Hints:
Radius of gyration: 16 Å
Oligomer: single chain
Distance between the termini: 27 Å
Strand content: 15-25%
Order of helices and strands: EHEHEHHHEHHEE
CATH class: Alpha Beta
Shape: globular
Number of helices: 7
Number of strands: 6
Number of domains: 1
Helix content: 25-40%
CATH architecture: 3-Layer(aba) Sandwich
Largest sheet: 6 strands, mixed
Strand order of the largest sheet: 3-2-4-1-5-6
Amino acid sequence: MALSVVIVRHGNTFAAGEPARRIGARTDLPLVDSGVAQAEALGVAFARDGWRFDRALAAPLLRTRTTIAGILAHQTDAPPVEPADWLTEIDHGPDEAQIESAVVDRIGADALARWDTEALAPEGWVVDPERRIAGWRGLFGTAQGRILIVTSNGAARFALLAVPALQEQASALPSLKLRTGAYAVIERGTDGLRLAAWDRRP
């Protein structure tokens, strides 16, 4: 049976005009109103396109659980949400909850660029890439049907590093980042894994 994995980054946790901060595993922020609207828009779009999910997985924090609940509210016979520890957000270490300018001052713009293009974590961040890649690789290797995953930007990017075929396709992307409220689609058919979409919003 074929596999289609829909990867969603949670909705906004900062309101318009509010300085964005590096938020990871140690900071459990709720969605702001625009983030709730993003989850609603995703749920409407997926239902409109006839996407029915056989499984649903989410990282444990409030922002991911609220996002997946908003999406699944538009599904008939929605599957239960399964926890997956390899989807847990990364820990930004000394940069947790810091505004971007402070993070750049500490580690430099080049380090942030390597994180966004190569998934190389800056010094002090706790990422555990091996565990994350193993989680994605296991899912891609054995799962079937259409699976919804809601996670963070830091965890989602490792889907692209799980197997060589996806790494090759990801090399054409300008960035490994997913914007808030955006989604990706990775499909497995008879010819292997294919990156069908990355960083799309409804």
